[in-house]
Design goal:
With 207 residues, the chain is mainly α. 74% of the residues lie in helices and 0% in strands.
């Protein structure tokens, strides 16, 4: 009887040891699988992804550019281009006509990089542009005006284009050419060196 009990005890111990070994091996395998699945990217790799996105965007390959920019935002070291990548994704979605997705990315960019005044300003412009595409003209005008009045960015071209967009809304969509003419004259006065003044719409001032 004692021998039988001893055999049972030894059997239980062997089973427990086997379970521990199997669990340890399984845990090690899981760790390896996790490490493989979240393999990080260094700064150099992130910059390569960003530059690929820039190249694809310049070729109007917006969907492919988005995929590259998203890799910049993936796991790994920071490369200093995260805010630009986030904004450029929104921009690409805008050009693809996916305005709802673009608007979400613009808002995310503003929330995530609130201290980057340049990116925030351009993202706010992007949201106003999206509102125009959605034919929410009064909202778009209000957003453009708030952007212009705050002037958190040194890029005067941005503000001249924002003012131009308001004039364009009045001229094309709201059919108020006099308000458009007033805004175009204001652009000529405030931003005489802006590239936007070469736009054909400024011809209405001469008429």
């Amino acid at each position: 009887m004692k021998n039988l009990n001893k055999m049972l005890v030894f059997s239980v111990i062997r089973v427990m040891c086997l379970v521990i070994i199997i669990s340890t091996v399984a845990f090690s395998q899981e760790q390896q699988e996790i490490l493989l699945s979240i393999n990080s990217v260094n700064t150099s790799g992130k910059l390569n992804y960003f530059n690929n996105g820039e190249s694809l965007r310049s070729q109007n390959k917006f969907s492919s550019a988005i995929e590259e920019y998203k890799k910049v935002l993936g796991p790994g070291e920071l490369c200093g281009k995260e805010a630009n990548a986030h904004y450029n994704i929104a921009l690409c979605y805008s050009w693809l006509g996916k305005v709802d997705i673009a608007e979400r990315w613009y808002n995310d960019t503003i929330n995530l990089y609130s201290e980057n005044t340049e990116i925030v300003a351009y993202s706010k412009f992007g949201i106003a542009w999206v509102k125009t595409k959605k034919q929410e003209f009064e909202t778009a005008i209000d957003l453009y005006n708030r952007l212009i009045s705050k002037k958190s960015n040194s890029d005067e071209e941005l503000y001249s284009v924002a003012m131009f967009q308001i004039g364009k809304i009045y001229l094309i969509f709201l059919k108020e050419p006099e308000k458009a003419k007033q805004l175009f004259n204001e652009i000529l006065s405030k931003y005489p060196n802006a590239n936007i003044i070469e736009h054909p719409y400024f011809e209405i001032i001469k008429n």
